[in-house]
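Let's do one together. I've listed all components of the complex below, 679 residues spread over two lines.
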Amino acid sequence: MSWKRDIKQLLRQWGLPARVLAILAAVMLLDFAVNALLFERANDFALQEQEAGQLAERLAIAERLLDEAPVARRNALARELSSGSFTLHWSAQAGRPLAAINLAGLQRQLMESQPELARARLQLHLRPIDVRHTLGGTMVLGDGSTLSFQSQSRATWPLKAGHILRMILPTVALVPLAWLLVFASLRPLRRLVRASKHVGTPHARPLEETGPAELQALIRAFNAMQRRIDDLLDANTQTMLAIGHDVRTPLARMQLRLDGLALDPAERAALDHDIAEMRDLIASLQSFVDADASEEAKERVDLAAMAQTLVDGAQDRGKSAEYEGPGRLVVMARSFALRRALSNLIENALHYGGNARVVVSRAAREVVIAVEDDGPGIAEEALGKVLQPFVRLDDARARNTAGMGLGLAIVDRSIRGEGGTLALSNRRAGGLRAEIRLPHDGLA
Amino acid sequence: MSAKSIVLVEDDPALRLLTARALRSHGYDVRTACTGAEMWVMLENAPADLIVLDIMLPGTSGIDLFRRLRREGDTPVIFISARGSEEDRVLGLELGADDYLAKPFGTRELMARVGAVLRRTQGEVELSSASRDYAFDGWSFSMARHELRSPDGALIDLTGAEFDLLATFIAQPQRVIGRQRLIELSRTRMGDSSDRSIDVLVSRLRRKLADGRDNAPIVTVRGIGYMFTAEVTRP
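Okay, and this is what the predicted structure of the assembly comes out as:
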């Protein structure tokens, strides 16, 4: 369907002004259509035969009597002929109100009933906003003076309602249309806002260029910016990894040379420790990069067994660690990422807090894994900072695992990669609580 | 008994020299190559008991060399990698390498890995790389991937010691294994290899294998040791 594509193409080229104009045109068209319809209805409007006959007769009598009466008597006569629901008023001037709605049908109906009304040039009008449902009209007497009348009739109500509707309809229609316009025009903008939150993360995707021309230009610029940022981050990551890889070989040489030397045991232990520290540093760099770029697929993982295994491992090394939670809890996750995150939190707790307590529990749609310790905790103002990579805090209470202070940043990245969250808080009883929340779809 | 023959393929000259020296000092007969081509020539001249292969080599990568080695024979291979990520390690082992050594490594670690692979392939614990996957009661146990999966496919983590213990049980199903023998087998893993720590290990393993049922397939044989009761198959 090429014409469909053509229209789409055309729409895509429209700028904001063109869109506003299009909406205005649509509203005006609607207004016109409603008016036409309403006039059509007013033209065809008729009173019930009996009511119309009575009205026509009263009008004809009034017209005849006043026409024949002397000018001085006419006012009084008009009052005499008036009754509760029917009032007459005579005026010497020849002036008629503009008919708000042309009631041609009703006019014809009345004139057919009393043909002499035609001679008096009967004109009917409907007072638009009038709670008393009045039908009004004028007749011209022989000497050019005007006789006007008001007659109450319930039957005119639907016409009135239609009239009121006609006046408010454009407004009523304009509000949703305007809302639609703004909503539709801003949709690409909202997507842009959402997308900007993902810049620099693995979830970043180029945006489709849709919407008004101005927004398309913005999206194009945004995509280009995002590409540049990705390239920069990529280059950054690649550099870090390359350095890591390149350092591994000389480190291996160093370690082997050291092993071949006859050294004082204390000296050897210190050197071994230095090399181990460098190795850990490179490994943590690698983990940090992997936490973000892992292509590992999600699989069924027993989170409870994982946490227990890490706790058991720590106990085997003589550390104070305990596990509290179910014996079995299967989640969908990337096992390396999750294990690394848990392991980092437990090691962190052991290192800075002296002990680790892992509490696993299930909430409605998520799994909560809390790693607590009884150590000094983290200064409140530093809580947010410790999750940032490469940020070192001078405060001795601020945690930085051996190396670059990447430990918690790795956890944060890994958990976000799993669609979960990491929150740190100081426990009231003292110590730090690191809480991981993972989405859980209720696997057994 | 003649010295074991090892071919070391490493492109960094200094590291090649140092690694070879370390291996020789532990009684191995070492030949060194810096490319895949050199390795093939050496293997044609004389077969090797073990090949220590760097993954990142100029020209043909270690992975490609490994694939060809596997097509032509089953000489055990230990990968050396400058990428230390866990995913790499599993990739190497999944390909069927016998072990994986991340740089930097020390002499002690190198010797432990080389020794373990040579012992294993010698037939002490008969395990050829092709058939190192096992199944029991719906569970699957992979030596290559170093992992245990429950009947519903969930990955169940094991500590190194637990893994070794389970591997020992699986290698000798329906046979009573003495406590003393288990202690010996797991000594490499546990610092404190007392009777008690074996009991702790067994109870942890039971807990993980229980899977909602009343009893795990490990029974205590009073005064002697333990027995793995499930039927083990090789898929």
